[in-house]
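Worked example 2:
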Amino acid sequence: SGICEDLSAAVCAGNNHNLRMDVQRREGCRESKTLGSLSLEITNQRLIMRASGCLERLTAAEERFHSLSSQIQKDLMERIKTSQHLLTETIKQSADSLLPQEWSSVPLLVLKQAEALLAQGDRGLLSLWLRSSLRHTLTSSLPNFLGQLKQASLLGQQELRRPLATLAGVYQDVKGQRLEAAWKEAVVMWTERLVDVLPAELENPHLRPLSLAGVTALRAALDVAGQHTYHWAETRLAMALSGVRKRLASLYKFIPRECVVTVSVPLLNLNFSRAAEHGLLEIMLEEWLLRPLQALASIRPTAELYRLKRKNMDSPFRHEALLVADQFVVTFDGHVYELPGSCPLLLAQDISSNPSFTLLLNTDLQSSLVIRMNNSTINIQRTGQVKVNCKNVVTHGYYSDHGLSVTKGSNNIQVSNQDGQSVSCDLLLELCSFTLDGWLHGASTGLMGTNNNDAGNDFPLRDGSQAKTLEEFFHSWELKPECSKFTETEEQFSKAAMSPASCGSLFSSPDSPLSSCFRV
């Protein structure tokens, strides 16, 4: 009595496909602390398992349990000795009567057996727990296995960062020769064969040194070209495998310092209503076998070669435009101007008849930036909340669907697709950048200008012509043209704003929109 301590186990099954189990310890009537937990949940087509528990907390609970059991054992021994003393005295006092002696002998025998058990120093349940295979698994085998699994995961990610170096190591293990040495030997062999097949005219003593010098230069050029090709191919292959590396990293995370392990496994997007109607086996065969075969049959080699060329060859440059505090725009080609604050505006859009991207700036209090990519709509609200198709709220983590990926951190948001279009926002700096791959050269129009490296045509109208004033430019890209009014003062200001900003006004003047950054 008076000891406000307990161990408790709790199991919670939620209706949103999650299960959680906790073992908690309360000490001194304070708030309970978690000794260990296990949770399972299904979110974004992934099965996520998280488990936590530190050996130090378990050992502390065991020591406390041992202390309390020792104290209870001591109290029981004292009470047994007192009871034995009383029963012995009773037997002595009733030496002339058999009935009290018979009644006292049985309890006395039981007390002696209890004393013998307690005197052995056995800890009972705690001793069984300490010797159990479950405790050995939780405290030794499982942490060692998780550590080995983490090392294997990190090693796999490291190998994927340098895939050709890994293959070169395998080649060296099999052949017993470094790949670089094999390449140099091959170059020497080719150049020697070239020397052997040189025309007889080059046997002239005057031409022979020149021909040998040319062969030596060719050998050096081939060697350098081979090294550069190797490094280029490794870089491109590592970039192509970055998605695999990220998926491998997201499968398993183990943090020994925090005693937390997370396993995330992707789930098949099965239609369970169809599975109930047609059978699970039929649906799995369709998803795993027939659909991949159908996709393989529809591959066009020319299109795949073009896609591979675009993916692996460096594009000439990248185009980037900026939106600052929902008020200022830096166009793709470097013009800076302030936006009118009264109307929703179209910042950028694909010039094709079926736009692959659209970027809108809203004026309502909820949604600030609206992005249209891959037939999906992403709303980035002023509060930092991100919604996909007006219903899927992206919390801290990663969302991916049909080639579109949305990543949300504590202060940053990134939206991108496989076509080289990306939007990145820093909530603290109130800065959003819109980036287009170099292969999309000249594919954009809108208030962020044309991404064609020509600053002279950075104020396009919807019909493709160039605006004569900044007001005409704004009015062309307003989504509600009736919401703005134009005055002569604004026209004069617009003409001034159309002139290029000077370095002094941008980087020295206290009125510069960049002045808050001068100190850093």
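Residues 125 and 131 are 10 Å apart (CA to CA). The radius of gyration is 38 Å.
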